[in-house]
Amino acid sequence: MGTIIEDANKEATGSALAQKNPKIVFVLGGPGSGKGTQCANIVEHFGYTHLSAGDLLRAEIKSGSENGTMIQNMIKEGKIVPSEVTVNLLLKAIAENENDKFLIDGFPRNEENRAAFEAVAGIEPEFVLYFDCPVEEMEKRLLSRNQGREDDNIDTIRKRFKVFLESSLPVIEYYSSKDKVRKIDSAKPVGEVFGTVKALFTPGQQTAAS
Ligand code: ADP
Ligand code: C5P
Ligand code: MG
Questions:
Q1: Fewest CB within a 10 Å sphere: which of 65, 101, 129, 141?
Q2: How would residue 17 be classed by pLDDT, with cut points 50, 70 and 90?
Q3: pLDDT at 142
Q4: Among 11, 38, 4, which Cα is nearest to 184's?
Q5: Residue whose CA is closest, atom 18 of ligand 1?
């Protein structure tokens, strides 16, 4: 629960956003499935702005915010940060950006994330990109990612996989039931994966993946 002023601010951000009516694509997939890698390619070719929920949360820790310690502990344990925090960071980033096309990477991670975003932003995604990759391949990639992340160690990685299976896959199933999911095999080399992704963003070729 926020204060009356915080709630009013949130409402204002929500309605400003509804007016802006941005185009949103959710980018989902297990840890290490290649979301960030493919988003960078989409940005380059199709002019979207990439917002990674994980990156926004890590920036929040670095900024010395009052939520920093809580976020850091959740990330270390592979747990999902309360939606209020993540949704606020995403809405702020969207509102501050002139662009009207956004890739939201690593969100919604659970049902609570999904419902919170829908309630506050009132925006449905155009579609959901789902990068499907075997766990063994994702594990191998995370262990050699080398970005100095505190959660890229085998113990946290296993916890993140469990959270993905238990909490994130149901969100993908939810969007699947609404025919919004474009599932892509991301175990292939980066260029091949992007070949399939590209078709989804190219008018007239939306049926290349299902
Ligand atoms: P995510 O954002 O889904 O966690 P990343 O894009 O950060 O995943 O990719 C995780 C690691 O795997 C990175 O080191 C990246 O360079 C590598 N990677 C990404 N896509 C592929 C691919 N198709 N084949 C091999 N390695 C990949
Ligand atoms: O997507 P990424 O791998 O960068 O996410 C890292 C961590 O950030 C997750 O394991 C989780 O702890 C946190 N996170 C979250 N809620 C999200 C996205 C990420 O709590 N929607
Ligand atoms: Mg990422």
A1: 65
A2: confident
A3: 98
A4: 38
A5: 34
Ligand 1 site-directed mutation target among 56, 103, 140, 141, most atoms within 8 Å of CB:
141
Ligand 2, atom 12, residue with closest C-alpha: 75
C-beta of 34 in contact with ligand 1 (< 6 A): yes
- Report which protein residue has its CA nearest ligand 2's atom 5: 54
Number of domains the chain is built from: 1
Segment 124-139 shows an average pLDDT of: 98
> In this structure, which ligand is nearest to the CA of 55?
2
| Domain, as residue range, for 105 | 11-194
Helix 111-121 vs helix 83-96: angle between axes, to the nearest 10 degrees?
40
pLDDT at 206 over 80: no
Q: Tell me whether residue 203 is in a domain.
A: no
8 Å CB contact between 127 and 180: yes
Name the closest-CA residue to atom 17, ligand 1. Answer: 141
Nearest Cα residue to 125 out of 79, 83, 90, 166: 90
Q: Which residue has the tokens 């662009």?
A: 99
Q: Measured in angstroms, how far is the CA atom of residue 109 from the centroid of ligand 2?
A: 8
In a domain, residue 208? The reply is no
pLDDT score of 144 more than 80: yes
Sequence letter at residue 95: A
**What's the rounded Cα separation, in Å, for the pair 187 and 192?**
10
